[in-house]
């Protein structure tokens, strides 16, 4: 049986670092795109590439794609994916599309608007071209010691022995581990019954910020 080829946008992201080995171990040939050139190819089944210059579309068939880059940047790559004869796309968005929509912080409102615009453009493009799509909206992602949320707090506490809080800090959070997000991307790519839908994904435990 021919080796399945999967393209990834944002492959060097935190989720990408967990997802690429999963795809490789499942027998896929991974074409991993990032903005920075990688000096070493890690394995025969993984091929790192820089994003092509504007206007380049490619000519090889890569039917399955996973977008881990910010979803509002995804429209920049429509032409490239069409050139590769894309058939199915799994894209990461965020639950911030809901939680930050009515925030008092203008920057958070803008982020929610960017997410909504990116999702809308992806769906419109995919449905106009007969492409299957799945959008995953994770909550706060943590893990690998690299996130800028939980791991940053842990490093601060390890260094200073405390962490400052405002008020009672009782707001609830439901963080999701990066490896679970990667597994969800893998599952969304493999199972056809989930196509053309959006899903919120979160960790199993709900806890107050404190």
What does this structure look like?
This protein has helices spanning 14-25, 78-83, 96-99, 106-128, 150-160, 178-190, and strands at 5-9, 29-34, 46-50, 64-67, 88-92, 132-138, 141-142, 172-173, 176-177, 197-201, 207-208. It is of the alpha/beta class and 210 residues long. The chain starts with a strand and ends with a strand. The model has no long low-confidence stretch (mean pLDDT 88).
Amino- and carboxy-terminal Cα gap: 52 Å
The chain-level structural class is alpha/beta
Low-confidence stretches: none
Q: H/E element string?
A: EHEEEHEHHEEHEEHEE
Roughly what is the average pLDDT, rounded to an integer?
88
Number of helices: 6
Tally of strands: 11
If you compute it from the alpha carbons, what radius of gyration comes out, rounded to the nearest whole angstrom? Answer: 18 Å
Q: What does the main sheet amount to?
A: 7 strands, parallel
β-sheet strand percentage: 15-25%
Please list the strands of the largest sheet in the order they lie side by side. 3-2-1-4-5-6-10
Shape: globular
State the share of residues found in helices, binned by percent: 25-40%
Q: Features of this protein?
A:
alpha/beta, two-stranded parallel ribbon, globular
TL;DR of this structure?
The protein is of the alpha/beta class.
Give the arrangement of secondary structure elements:
Layout: E1 5-9, H1 14-25, E2 29-34, E3 46-50, E4 64-67, H2 78-83, E5 88-92, H3 96-99, H4 106-128, E6 132-138, E7 141-142, H5 150-160, E8 172-173, E9 176-177, H6 178-190, E10 197-201, E11 207-208
Parallel strand pairs: 1-2, 1-4, 2-3, 4-5, 5-6, 6-10, 7-9
Antiparallel strand pairs: 8-11
């Amino acid at each position: 049986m021919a080796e399945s080829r999967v393209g990834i946008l944002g492959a060097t992201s935190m989720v990408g670092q967990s997802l690429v080995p999963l795809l490789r171990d499942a027998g896929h040939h991974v074409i991993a795109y990032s903005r920075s050139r990688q000096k070493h190819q890690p394995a025969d089944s993984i091929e790192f590439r820089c994003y092509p210059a504007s206007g380049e579309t490619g000519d090889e068939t890569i039917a399955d794609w996973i977008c881990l880059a910010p979803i509002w940047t995804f429209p920049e790559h429509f032409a490239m994916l069409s050139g590769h004869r894309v058939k199915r796309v799994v894209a990461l968005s965020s639950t911030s599309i809901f939680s930050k929509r009515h925030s008092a912080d203008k920057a958070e409102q803008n982020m929610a608007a960017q997410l909504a615009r990116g999702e809308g453009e992806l769906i419109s493009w995919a449905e106009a071209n007969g492409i299957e799509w799945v959008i995953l909206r994770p909550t706060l992602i943590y893990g690998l010691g690299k996130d800028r949320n939980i791991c940053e707090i842990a490093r601060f506490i390890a260094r200073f022995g405390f962490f400052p809080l405002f008020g009672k800090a009782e707001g609830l959070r439901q963080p999701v581990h990066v490896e679970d997000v990667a597994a969800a991307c893998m599952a969304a790519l493999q199972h056809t019954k989930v196509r053309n839908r959006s899903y919120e994904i979160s960790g199993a435990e709900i806890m107050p910020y404190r």
